[in-house]
Amino acid sequence: MTYRQQQPIMFNGWPYSYGQQSLITPAAGVLPHRQLADVLEQQRVNQLEIGLKQGVTAATTTKPPTTPAIQCGLGPATMPAARSSISERLAGGVNAKKNAWPFMVLVANGLGLGQQPCSGVLISDTQVLLAAQCLERLPLFYTMLMTVSVGMHSINPFDAPMTRRVSNIVLHGQFNAATFANDIAIITLDAPVVLSRTVAPVCLPPASADPDQYVDQDAIVLGWDGKEISAALTLYL
Asked: Where is the Peptidase S1 domain (predicted)?
């Protein structure tokens, strides 16, 4: 009679003898099924934690893009070589270089052809400073038709990179049309203008209660001029 020793059968890392689980140690290098599943799950959790930490680190170290600071405009540093005498009309001046005065705007009063437009300056991306006499006798209806053109060098409407409507007008409370005292007004645009190298607000002076703050100081008068008062409508800054 021959005797044959029963050999354990390996199944999923566990030794089986006649289908019954045995306490025999699993073969070297082979993990039990339950233990293997636990190891794989732990590895997956570890990878998720590493990914989350990396994502949080990247989010905290990445700086948002910075918006460049808006620089106000000063215009050319030197005075023009030719100067005209003071008069009620701007005539006989010197043509400015294109985009040399990025804060200058052209205010059309909405009355149509034959009406002299007014000059103004940007003091922010939504507000324009100008003379109150440009608006004092303007009928309310025509304020709806007013336009403000920025970045212009000539009065040619095709020369305007941007044009805005007017949403609000404020005249100085003590403006005197007879003496032109307090001849100042502020209009608010219906939408902000896009500031750039060629469109920028003017640099405002510091606040001062001294009425003679700029007495005997050199100044430049800006506006659209046809060289002569009788010149054609194509006027240049």
From this structure: 90-237
**Could you tell me the two tokens for 206?**
């510091």
What's the rounded Cα separation, in Å, for the pair 166 and 143?
7
The pTM (predicted TM-score) of the whole model is 0.62
CATH topology of domain 71-77+87-203+221-237: Thrombin, subunit H (2.40.10)
Using one digit for the tens of pLDDT, what is the confidence trace for 88-135? 555 566 777 888 888 999 898 766 544 667 889 999 999 999 999 988
